[in-house]
Amino acid sequence: MRRRLAAIALLSILAICVFQVSAQAQCSMCRTALESSPEGKGMAASFNRGILFLLGIPYIICGTVGVVVYRGYRKKQAADRRPANPYIPRS
Asked: How many domains does the chain have?
């Protein structure tokens, strides 16, 4: 099971590295276009905050899912280590 999980993780990382798309050029072009105009200065700050927001949300979602899975795994391990009590039904 661990080998299978390690293989899937390795293939996922390899796929991400191979099939990455260069998107930085578009972001810098948009920022330059916004900062070149006088009314675009305020919009450029909002644009930069929007980029940071879009960057952070996937990490927050993945982190939350990871914490929930980790806690569930730890809770199951703790329940398996407890001795069985014949008077308390196990669910």
From this structure: 1
